[in-house]
Amino acid sequence: MKNIIRGILVILVLVGAVSLRAQTAPSTPSAPTAQSAPSAQAEPTADEIVSKYVAAIGGKPAISQVKSMTMESSVQVMGNESPSSTTIVDGVGYKSETDINGAKIVTCYTDKGGWSVNPMAGVNNPTAMPDDVYNAGKGQINIGGALYDYAAKGSKIEFMGKDGNAYKIKLTSKESVEVMYLIDSTTYLVTSMMSKAKMQDQDVDVTTTFSDYRKSDLGYVIPYAIGIDFGQFALSIAVKKVEMNKPIDPAVFAMPKS
């Protein structure tokens, strides 16, 4: 059981205690022409879907106003509830800290590299992340997330059809990290995303769900309820408090000396 819990906590570190993916100015859908056949309406392109998603979470003007963000959350794992905090400075760094029965798990990404501390997995000192782990999570330093301004980041998107009422958008980063997003075709909010992570040295499929979206005073919309499912086990995150544009010293992201 202890190894299972450690594996769960490794996933928590890889995913980040809170993974908020927001994200090109909205496009206005064209009115149907007289020649259009209502029964043969074409599916929207990947860019059109992502643009509407960005509009749904506030649009480029709202996203660009957010320079920093701090969050206080509660993480529930196997019936245990633990406090967690997240700090983001746009384009500079992302740091999450989760306290599990007195053991502090820290995950940090910057524009130059990443590091972590996880006593539950035997990592008691700050340790640099392997490249694959860093590449999978470094997008969290950007307030807009992976879909926002994706082309400038060297990523590509592809429309993969529909899953029920949701559009499937696959994003491939310049490091060849793939993430599948499900975007509701009515609200254009992301309902879930699928990615891969390692647990006990094995690749596992991870599904992250997002709900309870709320608009901030700046107009930026984020999910307050997040679920992470990796097969036999799952954890849930409830965001309790969010502050935006609070002054943050970038030194908080520096890896401490052992």
Question: How are the elements arranged and paired?
Answer:
Blueprint: H1 2-15, H2 46-56, H3 59-65, E1 68-77, E2 80-89, E3 93-100, E4 103-110, E5 114-118, E6 123-128, H4 131-137, E7 156-163, E8 166-172, E9 178-184, E10 190-199, E11 202-215, E12 221-229, E13 234-244
Antiparallel strand pairs: 1-2, 1-13, 2-3, 3-4, 4-5, 5-6, 7-8, 8-9, 9-10, 10-11, 11-12, 12-13
What labels describe this entry?
258 residues, alpha+beta, outer membrane lipoprotein receptor (LolB), chain A, 4 helices, 15% helix, disordered N terminus
CATH fold description: outer membrane lipoprotein receptor (LolB), chain A
Shape, per Cα inertia axes: globular
> How many beta-strand segments?
13
* Rounded average pLDDT: 85
Read across the widest sheet, the strand sequence of neighbours is 6-5-4-3-2-1-13-12-11-10-9-8-7
The CATH architecture name reads Clam
The radius of gyration computed from the alpha-carbon positions, rounded to a whole number of angstroms, is 19 Å
Proportion in β-strands = 35-45%
Number of separate structural domains: 1
Main β sheet profile = 13 strands, antiparallel
The top level CATH class name:
Mainly Beta
Distance from first to last alpha carbon: 29 Å
Our count of helices gives 4
The percent of residues in helical segments reads 10-25%
